[in-house]
Amino acid sequence: MIGERLRLVRMAAGLSLRGLAAAMGNRVTAQAIGKYERNESMPSPGVLIALASALGVTDSYLRGEREIALERIAFREKVIASKKEEARLDATIRRRLERHLLVDERLNLATAWDRPTGSPYPILTDVAEAERAAHGVRDQWELGRDPIANLVEVVETRGIKVLSVALEGIDGLTATVRREGKPPLVVIVLNQDAWSERKRFTLAHELGHTLLDVADPLDKDRACRRFAGAFLMPAETLWAEVGKRRTSISLGELAHLKRMFGVSLQAITTRCRDLGILGPRGVANLLRVFAQRGWHRPPYAEIGTIDPAFEAPRRIERLCFRALAEGVLSEPKAAEILGMSVRRLKRLMDDPQASESAPAGVVTPVRRAAAGL
């Protein structure tokens, strides 16, 4: 029965029933597609191939039976603009997760995530308590206090699924995915169009939403921002770089700190305020400069912008290569999972520099900082 799978892919593509019928050249009507989705009738082999072609998937994918049920989605800062957009995101997340879980199963990898002991951490009287929570997570995940070179990699290796998706009006969201007879999954979705510095901070912020239990009437969003700042820029490390009390910090110094921590100039300034390094006047002066240079608005063209492709989820690509090498995944299936042609897949396997990730030998700003260069 293809009904649920067809509906899922159609909604992930943002198509209405009529839109899909039009994309097929009106080979069948919207009413007929609706019957396929309700499993009231089955498409002929030719129609199934046409449906798959219009949706950019294979007909074998539409015949699959795997299904993932979303338990809930916790949105950050803003509510999704419309029910249609919410349905599209629901379908997109489930479809992407399905691919990840298939590869995990073929490689016999554990899918439970490494939840730090003691979490969710209670934040009872002040959002500053999120500092201790951030330190606790770093300690349990053995990250030390150095800058984190690739945050997506750190989070993914702890069992949290990170997806890059087009989002409308929000930078990220967190979802808990329920699976029958198995532990729930934690999924963090990042806006694929956001700038890399923002992606890193959003990822840490969403991690805060997962790991903090903020008591009323405290502002949970503020607590998660404090967690993100402490997780990406530990107090001891920042103090060692700039000192504990400053009246001002130049743009040149901020640019060096940005390369070290991989966050925006505004995030560094906010962190300096939170730790009392800069007073209100010093913070206000910097924020005024940022506003004058247009760094508060898209495209956020700050100095020293990080490569947009750097903080992108790459685990699924790496695991597909591993599954191919171990013979537990076919090339056509791996290409389908990665959303590319078999020809491109072979090229990526034979020539890693063809990948969209940073070429071998090129040291990105955050990697350079982490390597002490």
Please, what is the average pLDDT?
86
Order of helix and strand elements from N to C terminus = HHHHHEHEHHEEEHEHHHHHHHHH
Structural class: alpha/beta
Number of helices: 18
For the sheet with most strands, the description reads:
4 strands, mixed
User: Helical percent range?
Assistant: 40-55%
**Strand residue percentage:** 5-15%
Query: If you compute it from the alpha carbons, what radius of gyration comes out, rounded to the nearest whole angstrom?
Result: 23 Å
Question: If you consult CATH, what is the topology of one domain?
Answer: 434 Repressor (Amino-terminal Domain)
Give the total of beta strands.
Answer: 6
Provide a descriptive summary of the structure in words.
By secondary structure, the protein is α/β, with parallel strands linked by helices. Among the domains are: 1-65, lambda repressor-like DNA-binding domains (434 Repressor (Amino-terminal Domain)); 315-356. The protein is 50% helix and 10% strand. The chain is built from 18 helices and six strands. Helix 2 (17-23) crosses helix 3, helix 6 (83-106) runs parallel beside helix 15 (315-325) and helix 16 crosses helix 17. The protein is elongated. The model is unreliable at 356-373 (pLDDT under 50).
